[in-house]
Amino acid sequence: MNAVIDRLRRTTDTVVGEDDLRERLDSGRPLRIKYGVDCTAPDLHLGHAVNLWMMRQLQDLGHRVVFLLGDLTTRVGDPTGRSETRPVLTPAQIDANAASFLDQVSLVLRTDADVFEVRRNSEWYDVMPVAELLGLFAQVTQAQLMSRDMFRERVAAGREIAVHELVYPVLQGYDSCAMESDLTIVGSDQLFNEQLGRHFQQRLGAPPQVVLTTTITPGIDGRAKQSKSLNNYIGLTDSPRDKFGKLMSIPDSLVEPYARVYTELPLDDVAALGDAASTGGPAARDAKLRLAAAVVTRYHGAGAARTELAAFRRTFTDRAVPEDIPELAVPASVRTVLDLLRAINPSASNSSLRRLISQGAVTVDGIRCQDPAAPVDLTTPTVVRSGPRAWHRVVGEPPRRHR
Amino acid sequence: MNAVIDRLRRTTDTVVGEDDLRERLDSGRPLRIKYGVDCTAPDLHLGHAVNLWMMRQLQDLGHRVVFLLGDLTTRVGDPTGRSETRPVLTPAQIDANAASFLDQVSLVLRTDADVFEVRRNSEWYDVMPVAELLGLFAQVTQAQLMSRDMFRERVAAGREIAVHELVYPVLQGYDSCAMESDLTIVGSDQLFNEQLGRHFQQRLGAPPQVVLTTTITPGIDGRAKQSKSLNNYIGLTDSPRDKFGKLMSIPDSLVEPYARVYTELPLDDVAALGDAASTGGPAARDAKLRLAAAVVTRYHGAGAARTELAAFRRTFTDRAVPEDIPELAVPASVRTVLDLLRAINPSASNSSLRRLISQGAVTVDGIRCQDPAAPVDLTTPTVVRSGPRAWHRVVGEPPRRHR
């Protein structure tokens, strides 16, 4: 079973209950894997899919994913309108969101009845007497709930916490009891709530679920984690073309972590891609092409990846470039991106050119260049974009000979 | 209606919603008065009865007391055993406590169906979906609940608050909506919870209840408020004799507040009793006799009061005194309690005698004397007790004449 755990570990941040995991995998019994979601409009991205691929790996070994819709908690919403967490949804919206969720999830998970089951937490909360819920509350303290990072941050920021938000982790925790979860794989922001699940399972005499949290990688802008509101994510439902294009736009420094977490490339290859990316220029571009092809292969197959690779090359070396762009011959002394921009805009100040570069407005043969000192190779005609509508086909003049 | 309000004000500390109260009393509509209790074993004392007498006054005007048993909340109890608030009770215990509660309450309130109704909060909580409860939680913030004095004190003392305790005020508050409370009369420690009742009523579009809190008087030891654990209370079910005796034992300084809050003596009489009590000695004793008689009259009728008055005098001047106590003639120079003790115990030190007095071991004609300088009148034989078994019948010698 160590092989299974090792493979999971590639994308695992922390494991709570590793011995239990080992023991349960050894037992041969199909495990119940809790995959809990709230029922707001889903837009799963590569980050979410890390968890899904781990579950898929376990499905392939015969374990069962229990897809748990938190419809009860979603239905409650936030009537005060003061919270920033979740809006109120109608039952119809919840159903529509649930259907969409399943569509997206099925891009990764197997959804055959042997290894997949859909549940809603209203199944138990709709029939739970208030007294029983209060009995759960009696097993947790206010201080325990307030120790959650999110709450502490809110308090520190002077923002309010409504009481239904405060008790949300109790509900999410009890879900693990009700559905007899053996294991759950979540983002680290869910660790607190799922540990409450262990707490309740132990209190109620059930074996506590194992909690795996996954590595979180930054969004395609290299900064915060992927999120819809920052528009820095790669959606599972993005077309192969969009996935490919977004991956080509990531900072060089993300090639290695993305390849490790979002592909199944051998780890040696991952390291090599990281090394190549760190040298910048065409080597980095080629590393990104390989990464993008691997991700597209994973979701859409090798054929789609080949198509996108070809399309990308065509677009960014020929077609996407306007027909009638001016040609420009530049002296052989142009060695760097900054030299190149200076040759194109002789009247602009150095600082404005550097700003243009650092802002990401400059691409060389379709590759964004944000380092002014990065070397450029002008031995063949090179398409340079130095602003929204500023295109040039640049050719390096051969070095002058002394007469 | 001002007369009604003025009469209520005699024992009122704060009024939340005084204009509403005036308006509703003016409307002529019978008001619903919430009298909520938890179902732990009851032992109502004079302090609780202050609220009951205010309700009784309103019953006599045609308003209805809704006696609300918090059976749901009592049933939950505290399975963690870490709280100091309430133990878990069985349904049978709850029923027994409820019956005992009603017995005690009926010593003050009218219990005829026109003006009295018994409800249990399980009526609404047993059929409330969890989602609806969470909807209530959404209307309150964690900070609001934690602002309650009791919780702040617990946190300051490093003690834990279980979550069912934290949300208890929400349940108590919602009770006011469910039972359509117009008015509630509570101890000031309940003000927070009942204000949440107003909050929910307003949120749910109902007229908010008026909240009256009552003046709290100290226990018979003159210190903390009456409580069973301190054994410093006068129970409603105490016999007329016990009530009378306990009232005779209170510090002089409590005669005025007790007479104001625990009797319906005219306020001028209350002031006069207070003045008499402040002079100490026989005048204070007589003031206490009048107070004790008024309280016993209120609960047991004038006949019982006369009986107790006679019994008290008999006991503490004749009968309770052992048959064969020594007589002692003391010189006319004995003027104070300390003089008297010195005459009885010529070999004891002044400081030990003072200590005996201050500890309350000394009674003169059945009245405890704690002031060494209090005057004593020895013109008639006087029974002095200067310790558990130290009795003397003391007679003052006539002043010696010079020969």
UniProtKB/TrEMBL annotation, chains A, B:
<keyword id="KW-0436">Ligase</keyword>
<dbReference type="GO" id="GO:0003723">
    <property type="term" value="F:RNA binding"/>
</dbReference>
<keyword id="KW-0067">ATP-binding</keyword>
<dbReference type="InterPro" id="IPR002305">
    <property type="entry name" value="aa-tRNA-synth_Ic"/>
</dbReference>
<dbReference type="InterPro" id="IPR024088">
    <property type="entry name" value="Tyr-tRNA-ligase_bac-type"/>
</dbReference>
<dbReference type="GO" id="GO:0005829">
    <property type="term" value="C:cytosol"/>
</dbReference>
<dbReference type="GO" id="GO:0006437">
    <property type="term" value="P:tyrosyl-tRNA aminoacylation"/>
</dbReference>
<protein>
    <recommendedName>
        <fullName>Tyrosine--tRNA ligase</fullName>
        <ecNumber>6.1.1.1</ecNumber>
    </recommendedName>
</protein>
<keyword id="KW-0648">Protein biosynthesis</keyword>
<keyword id="KW-0547">Nucleotide-binding</keyword>
<feature type="domain" description="RNA-binding S4">
    <location>
        <begin position="349"/>
        <end position="377"/>
    </location>
</feature>
<keyword id="KW-0030">Aminoacyl-tRNA synthetase</keyword>
<keyword id="KW-0694">RNA-binding</keyword>
<dbReference type="InterPro" id="IPR002307">
    <property type="entry name" value="Tyr-tRNA-ligase"/>
</dbReference>
<dbReference type="Pfam" id="PF01479">
    <property type="entry name" value="S4"/>
</dbReference>
<dbReference type="InterPro" id="IPR002942">
    <property type="entry name" value="S4_RNA-bd"/>
</dbReference>
<dbReference type="GO" id="GO:0005524">
    <property type="term" value="F:ATP binding"/>
</dbReference>
<comment type="similarity">
    <text>Belongs to the class-I aminoacyl-tRNA synthetase family.</text>
</comment>
<dbReference type="InterPro" id="IPR014729">
    <property type="entry name" value="Rossmann-like_a/b/a_fold"/>
</dbReference>
<dbReference type="InterPro" id="IPR036986">
    <property type="entry name" value="S4_RNA-bd_sf"/>
</dbReference>
<dbReference type="GO" id="GO:0004831">
    <property type="term" value="F:tyrosine-tRNA ligase activity"/>
</dbReference>
<dbReference type="Pfam" id="PF00579">
    <property type="entry name" value="tRNA-synt_1b"/>
</dbReference>
